[in-house]
């Protein structure tokens, strides 16, 4: 659906040139939710803006839905843009128009007649759950509602691709989740390809199928979200993964645990995929003569499985503890002994 | 009191009021159109905008600044040959119009430019991302989104235009300024001048009221 080949973008600046995007290659499949994560200034926005021609690559080609976006101009580009919608961090609604009129705007641009416009707007209002707010102005809406208008507006012309530039960064965690649920719902229902950029791993974890990690203009890591969670290779990726898998203040707490439990040992378990769904602890207690004490844990669900960590304390005979550890290991669960008491 | 009623030539006052309103309404309308065009041109040809063009921007900006800086009364005198060429006379309400419009349009053009700059760039970008043409951007985004500021700007401009018509009146364009000068000052009847002043104030208040009403009504922020 989307093909980015050897794409670079250089901005001329006073102190020499600034390479915002550096030789990026990506293939995004139809119906995929693809995430791009990186810190501020990594070049994420520049990259996504080249997908609808708001920015032209200095080098390389961008193809979306069979059209070479980096080559076409004028009417052809405008036509292409009706199939590649975008939603924004700050929503970018027209404040002089009501909710309905904002959603009708792209339909007016596409030349849809007024009775069909009305019908389509009604459908979209229902789709994003804004019934009853049709005649409100954006200034009368909450952030989450504004983004729903943005999404409805983006879907108006039945696009093939939806680009999201930090679409949830201005929202609180709860509203973020509801917007993300809406995006997953749209992806499933309409088979829409979604490209989403963010600096929050939580967003990637929750809805993306694959993720690309960007650092100073380059993609440094790429893969299915669960694989990246399982095996982050680059230091930057590890840091992002820690944002969601590691319970807060892990270092301090493990220190604290070691002091609290001088006997036995503290073990960190990491689960991936189906392994999170078995009664592991029960089996450990049944099979080995140990006392298990659950200390702390966190499990995250991704679009292609779960990932989590759990800290437990095992006490008993050394041989039994070893047996328990071997058993856990045999169940495809990662085990790391933090201390031997 | 009867004295006062006789002293003021009411029919002349009515005629002068009509002339002032005529000059004001025509010149406000023309100033709105011309100022809006120039303001859009200034905004759109600026760096980073859809018609970015340094030469056009500098030339239009220069012309606007020059005409905005010439005091109105001097502009009237400067434009005498032009007006004569255009209308064949320099007397009467119509003869005041070129100077009124040329004096006020650049002033309004700058206000239009400022109003357009207030629009969030993201909104223009969002429209582009939906495949909007330049026409869509101008008529469906720029003008509606800046409408309250465009209206309050034309209100301020209209009020200074009323002032300009009074000045133009003194050099023969008719209207309340001419009336006050002719019958009040030259006829040595301060009362008449006072009556003319009140008439002008009433017109100004009405314009201000209408302008404020529509500014508020269109502002949905
Ligand atoms: N129009 C421009 N002109 C010059 N430099 C630019 C322009 N747009 C972006 N840049 C630069 O390119 C680099 C990448 O910017 P970009 O906006 O793509 O980053 P980002 O990853 O989206 O960051 P953020 O998370 O802060 O939005 C930055 O150093 C930025 O200053
Ligand atoms: Mg950005």
Automatic annotation (TrEMBL), chain A:
InterPro entries xref list: AAA+_ATPase (IPR003593), ABC_transporter-like_ATP-bd (IPR003439), ABC_transporter-like_CS (IPR017871), ACT-like_dom_sf (IPR045865), MetN_ABC (IPR041701), MetN_ABC_transporter-like (IPR050086), NIL_domain (IPR018449), P-loop_NTPase (IPR027417)
GO terms (BP aspect): amino acid transport
GO function terms (MF aspect): ATP binding; ATP hydrolysis activity
GO cellular-component term (any): plasma membrane
Cited SUPFAM superfamilies: ACT-like, P-loop containing nucleoside triphosphate hydrolases
Keyword Membrane found: yes
Residue ranges of domain ABC transporter in the record: 2-241
SMART domains registered for this protein in UniProt: AAA, NIL
Keywords (A to Z) from UniProt: Amino-acid transport, ATP-binding, Cell membrane, Membrane, Nucleotide-binding, Translocase, Transport
Domain of life from the UniProt record: Bacteria
Family under the similarity heading: Belongs to the ABC transporter superfamily.
Name the UniProt record assigns to this protein: Methionine import ABC transporter ATP-binding protein MetN
Originating species: Neobacillus vireti LMG 21834
Taxonomic lineage of the native organism: Bacteria, Bacillati, Bacillota, Bacilli, Bacillales
Automatic annotation (TrEMBL), chain B:
Domain ABC transmembrane type-1: 17-211
SUPFAM superfamilies documented for this protein: MetI-like
Topological category with respect to the lipid bilayer: Multi-pass membrane protein
Keywords: Cell membrane, Membrane, Transmembrane, Transmembrane helix, Transport
Any one of the GO BP annotations: D-methionine transmembrane transport
InterPro entries xrefs: AA_ABC_Transporter_Permease, MetI-like, MetI-like_sf
One Pfam entry name: BPD_transp_1
Sequence similarity: Belongs to the binding-protein-dependent transport system permease family. CysTW subfamily.
The protein's name in its UniProt record: ABC transmembrane type-1 domain-containing protein
């Amino acid at each position: 659906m989307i093909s980015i080949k050897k794409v670079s973008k250089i901005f001329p600046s006073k102190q020499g040139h600034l390479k915002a995007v550096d030789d990026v290659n990506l293939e995004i499949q139809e119906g995929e939710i693809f995430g791009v994560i990186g810190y501020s200034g990594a070049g994420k926005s520049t990259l996504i803006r080249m997908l609808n021609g708001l920015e032209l690559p200095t080098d390389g080609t961008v193809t979306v839905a069979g059209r070479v976006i980096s080559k076409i101009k004028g009417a052809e580009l405008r036509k292409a843009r009706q199939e590649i919608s975008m939603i924004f961090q700050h929503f970018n609604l027209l404040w002089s128009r009501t909710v309905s009129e904002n959603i009708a705007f792209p339909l007016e641009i596409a030349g849809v007649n007024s009775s069909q416009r009305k019908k389509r707007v009604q459908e979209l209002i229902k789709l994003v759950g804004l019934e009853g707010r049709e005649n409100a102005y954006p200034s009368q809406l909450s952030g989450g509602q504004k983004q729903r208008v943005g999404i409805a507006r983006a879907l108006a012309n039945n696009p093939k691709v939806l680009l999201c530039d930090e679409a949830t960064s201005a929202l609180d965690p709860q509203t973020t989740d509801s917007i993300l649920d809406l995006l997953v719902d749209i992806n499933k229902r309409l088979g829409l390809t979604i490209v989403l950029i963010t600096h929050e791993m939580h967003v990637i974890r929750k809805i993306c199928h694959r993720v690309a990690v960007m650092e100073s203009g380059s993609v440094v890591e790429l893969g299915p979200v669960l694989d990246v969670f399982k095996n982050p290779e680059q230091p930057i990726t590890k840091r992002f993964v820690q944002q969601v898998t590691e319970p807060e203040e892990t270092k301090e707490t493990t220190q604290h645990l070691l002091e609290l439990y001088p006997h036995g040992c503290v073990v960190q378990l990491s689960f991936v995929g189906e392994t999170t769904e078995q009664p592991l602890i029960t089996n450990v207690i049944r099979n080995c003569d140990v006392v298990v004490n659950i200390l702390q844990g966190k499990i995250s669900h991704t679009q292609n499985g779960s990932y989590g960590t759990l800290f437990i304390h095992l006490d008993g005979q050394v041989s039994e503890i070893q047996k328990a550890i071997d058993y856990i290991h045999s169940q495809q669960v990662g085990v790391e002994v933090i201390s031997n008491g | 009191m009867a004295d006062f009623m006789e002293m003021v030539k009411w029919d002349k006052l009515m005629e002068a009021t009509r002339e002032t309103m005529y000059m004001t309404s025509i010149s406000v309308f023309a100033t709105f159109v011309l100022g809006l065009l120039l303001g859009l041109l200034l905004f759109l040809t600026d760096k980073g905008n859809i018609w970015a063009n340094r030469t056009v921007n500098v030339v239009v900006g220069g012309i606007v600044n020059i005409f905005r800086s010439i005091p109105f009364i001097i502009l009237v005198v400067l434009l005498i040959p032009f007006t004569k060429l255009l209308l064949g006379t320099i007397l009467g309400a119509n003869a005041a119009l070129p100077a009124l419009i040329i004096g006020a349009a650049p002033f309004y053009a700058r206000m239009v430019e400022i109003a357009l700059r207030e629009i969030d760039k993201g909104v223009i970008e969002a429209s582009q991302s939906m495949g909007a043409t330049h026409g869509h951007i101008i008529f469906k985004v720029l003008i509606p989104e800046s409408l309250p500021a465009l209206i309050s700007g034309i209100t301020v401009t209209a009020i200074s235009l009323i002032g300009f018509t009074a000045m133009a009146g003194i050099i023969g364009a008719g209207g309340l300024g001419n009336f006050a000068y002719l019958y009040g000052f030259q006829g040595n009847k301060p009362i008449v001048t006072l009556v003319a002043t009140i008439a002008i104030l009433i017109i100004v208040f009405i314009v201000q009221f209408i302008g404020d009403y529509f500014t508020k009504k269109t502002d949905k922020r």
